[in-house]
Amino acid sequence: MDKETYREKVKRASPDSPLVKNCLWAFCVGGAICLIGEALFTLYARLGADEKTAPALVSVTLIAVTAALTGVGVFDRIAKHAGAGTMVPITGFANSVVSPAVEFATEGRVTGTAVRMFTIAGPVIVYGCSAASLYGLIYYCFLRG
Amino acid sequence: MKRLGKYTFTFESAPAILSGAGSVGKAEGEGPLAHEFDFINENDGVGASTWEKAEASLVRQAVTLAIDKARLTPAEIDVAFAGDLLNQCTASTFGFRELQIPLAGLFGACSTFALALFMAALFVDGGYAKHALAEASSHFCSAEKQFRMPLEYGGQRPQTAQRTVTGAGACIVGAKGTGPRIVRGCVGRITDMDVSDPANMGAAMAPAAAATIGEYLLDTKTVPEDYDLILTGDLGSVGAALMRDLLRSDYGCDPGAVHNDCGLMVFDAKKQDVHAGGSGCGCSAAVFSTKILRELSNGTLSRVLFAGTGALMSPLTTLQGESIPCICHAVELAGGERRL
Q1: Rounded to whole angstroms, what are the CA distances from B168 to B43, B83, B134, B164, B231?
Q2: Interface contact A21, partner B, CB < 8 A
Q3: Other C-beta atoms within 10 Å of A20: how many?
């Protein structure tokens, strides 16, 4: 059998991920996280946080809760079903930092936890900062009023 | 020449497998083969502080029990062939550290156990060892850590992915004594059909399995129906179907009902969340050293072709966009006292 024919056979033999089910889970869990975010925002606002402080407090809370759930081994069980629902909000970012930190703790606090902490999130930071810098430059040169 | 056809080695003295032992983790102990395994560790950490140490403990459990069952001592083992999935054969090296058995580390990814059995039979048949040991192991957590994502990372695995078996299996091969016989074997060639998805290793390994099994049948002038069981290592559901397809189209034979796969036997695909099945060196090692060996010994099976498949990629080659080179080594077993 030649490689081309085999490639076709592999495609046919490999079951697809359940797209509709995954989308529904992602929509519901992602939506629920955003709802919790909104609720937290209202709560912090009522407690006296101003409009700039309240969103930051919401992010911090979601990050802290995710980190704790990752640490006790619950987050990945939720994410297995939720998929993009937990990955897209800030929870996914927090999990991608905490999970390697926990995993590689056996290789030492410096050479394990600290070195590996950004193996997954690192690219997001690198390209996120690069894009922000580029946008800043364009804004500075052309769009500044 | 102790050779048959193009690739097959004949072991004229038909070395016997004197004993076997399998040690597994929690998920495997909840699967359909739970009653077959010698040790089921309730905790995948096996009381060790790292996953690598846990896997080394599995190695020690399987090796020492196999030696005990053969009523031997470690000093009576002339040579051991052992391997695992971790860099520098970590689990095997550390597992054997205190045993003082002459050790040859092997790497054949998930095909390691079949290769170890082949090497053990070769050394015994050649008169270089009275007792040789074959062993292989893998651990879900240490494999995930090395090849994939951290355990606590929240991601979704595709349907073609397989779960690395937490387990180790060991067999003692001897020149004298009773037990199923290793009558022939064959070392595989690298086969690469341009599959580059590390989450679909069954598809990558199927052509290697088909090539080795197909050539073995040609060399020995046999057909699948001559065997009670043609057992592949860890093709899983996707790979098993593709292998049968390849054997039909390239070799004109269909293993059909006599084919089974350790990766399909070790977990309950419906109840346990394992997608395409089990994988890893420990998968075929633990299944072969317990269930298959027992059935060969008690006469349930009398002729078995065991073909272990391995995907020989590394995390580095995957990142470099390489396709997955695969291999399949085979040994033929004769149940009870039957010789060639």
Answers
A1: 15, 10, 11, 12, 18
A2: no
A3: 7
CA atoms within 13 A on the CB side of A64: 7
pLDDT, tens only, B207-240: 999 999 999 999 999 999 999 999 999 999 999 9
Best of B43, B90, B148, B153 to disrupt the A interface (most A CBs within 10 Å) is B153
Structure confidence at residue B256 as a pLDDT band (50, 70, 90): confident
Place of tokens 């078996």: B165
- Triad B210, B213, B218: Cα angle to 5°: 115
Cα–chain center distance at B90: 17
Map out the domains of chain B as residue ranges: 15-174, 181-334
What is the CATH code for B15-174? 3.40.47.40
Q: Do B150 and A87 touch (CB under 8 A)?
A: no
Residue of B nearest to A9 (CA): B242
Question: What is the Cα Rg of chain B in Å?
Answer: 18
B10: β partners: B184
The percent of residues in chain B predicted with pLDDT above 70, rounded, is 99
pLDDT tens-digit readout, B274-319: 999 999 999 999 999 999 999 999 999 999 999 999 999 999 999 9
List, as one string, the DSSP characters of B43-69.
Answer: STTTT-SSHHHHHHHHHHHHHHHHHHH
| Identical fold, B15-174 and B181-334 | yes
End-to-end CA distance of chain A: 65
Is ipTM > 0.85 here? yes
Domain covering B181-334 in this structure, CATH number: 3.40.47.40
Report the C-alpha gap between A9 and B204 in whole angstroms.
Answer: 12
Taking a C-beta distance cutoff of 8 angstroms, is the pair B62, B168 a contact?
yes
Q: Are A13 and B241 in contact (CB < 8 Å)? A: yes
Judged by a CB distance cut-off of 8 A, whether residue A9 touches chain B is yes
Cβ within 8 Å, pair A13-B149: no
